[in-house]
Amino acid sequence: MIQLSQQRTSKNKRGTINCDNTTRHLLQANDFVAEAIRNKMLQSKTLVINIVSSAGSGKTTLMIETGKRLKEKYSIKVLVGDLETERDADRIKAAGVDALQIVTGGICHLEAQMVWQAMETMDLTGTDLLFIENVGNLVCPASFDLGEDYRVTLIASTEGDDKPKKYPRMFLTSELMIVSKADLLPYVPFSVEEVTKDARDINHELEVITISSIKGDGIEEWCQWLEERIALKRQIV
């Protein structure tokens, strides 16, 4: 049974209550686990990439096309976050890449403790590259460190070029922005130049790659970006 302190509550005006910032405490706990993930992956020299975007921006298709090109050279694993179903993990596994679905049960983002639990059930021995495909959402995932080395944000040509300044925290906390579905650019009102300008107004160090996972445009540049960072991770003492 919880007993309220009469002395403490008497300090408040009638009809008011002082509440702790529970969001701050949640993020502090998350960051503690994220740092444990980062240290563990540093020991194994595994590069960890957190892939974020709105729903339907092409994260899973990008994972499939990346796996096709790099799976013979590197050991790749994918953790896939979704509210329900294992469909995305099944698609990735069908392409020959080891994947595990994290079903959040309605939570709109992945948290570090979810990733830690998933890692405990997956054999990561010898893994060169671990992708964390986050839940499709440009808001909540921006606040949760998952122990990644790099955060990569996809923005599809079909969702409009005004997203960076609507959801600035996601772009501020990312190292790379990928403009996806470039094959549709002739048919939609989307400017790569404008979305790049807005994103770099927020984060002037943000790198940008334009891709079409369907046609293969830009995928080699993306794979080269990954390979360079795999090499850098291996050099860390």
Topology:
Layout: H1 6-9, H2 22-44, E1 47-52, H3 59-70, E2 76-82, H4 87-94, E3 98-103, H5 112-121, E4 129-133, E5 150-156, H6 163-166, H7 168-172, E6 176-180, H8 192-202, E7 207-210, H9 219-235
Parallel strand pairs: 1-4, 1-5, 2-3, 2-4, 5-6, 6-7
Helix pairs in contact: 2-5, 3-4, 3-9
How is this structure best described in words?
- With 237 residues, this protein is α/β, with parallel strands linked by helices.
- It has a single domain (46-235), classed as P-loop containing nucleotide triphosphate hydrolases (Rossmann fold), CATH 3.40.50.300.
- The chain contains nine helices and seven strands.
- The protein has helices spanning 6-9, 22-44, 59-70, 87-94, 112-121, 163-166, 168-172, 192-202, 219-235; strands spanning 47-52, 76-82, 98-103, 129-133, 150-156, 176-180, 207-210.
- Strands 3-2-4-1-5-6-7 form a seven-stranded parallel beta sheet, with helices on both faces.
- Helix 4 (87-94) links the parallel strand 2 (76-82) and strand 3 (98-103).
- The protein starts with 5 loop residues before the first helix and ends with a helix.
- Residues 1-22 have low confidence and may be disordered.
Largest sheet data = 7 strands, parallel
Give the overall pLDDT as a whole number: 90
Order of helices and strands: HHEHEHEHEEHHEHEH
The CATH topology label is Rossmann fold
Contiguous helical run count:
9
Shape: globular
CATH fourth-tier homologous superfamily = P-loop containing nucleotide triphosphate hydrolases
CATH class: Alpha Beta
How many independent structural domains? Answer: 1
Q: Which sequence of strands runs across the widest sheet? A: 3-2-4-1-5-6-7
Secondary structural class: alpha/beta
**Alpha-carbon Rg, integer:** 20 Å
Strand content: 15-25%
- Tally the beta strands: 7
Give the CA-CA distance, first to last residue: 51 Å
Helix content: 25-40%
Named at the architecture level, the CATH assignment is: 3-Layer(aba) Sandwich
Weakly predicted, low-confidence segments: 1-22
